[in-house]
Amino acid sequence: xxxxxxxxxxxxxxxxxxxxxxNSKNEISTxxxxxxxxxxxTVGNFETMQSCxxxxxxxxxxxxxEIKLSGxxxxxxxxxxxxxxxxxxxxxxxxxxxxxxxxxxxxxxFN
Length: 111
Known about the structure:
This protein is of the alpha+beta class. The protein has two domains: 1-37; 39-111, no CATH class.
């Protein structure tokens, strides 16, 4: 009976491990897909959330694209370019002891 229990629990552990491995592969695949869309991130700091979002919108417009906001709160704005969720940006409130409060923009660098 103990041998059977060991096999049962051993098989369960193996199934759990295999399940977790498959999820990791999906996450890696998703990250690789996102990296193919653009390879460089540009970071900028702004005094207000509005100026942060406006700047990202102007960068997108100069590349012939538009931004689409998908999330907006007082601390963070997120969105995508031309509705493609793999090409994303965000503006996020940051607080640093030496720099004070500012809004950080992370977005793709367009050629």
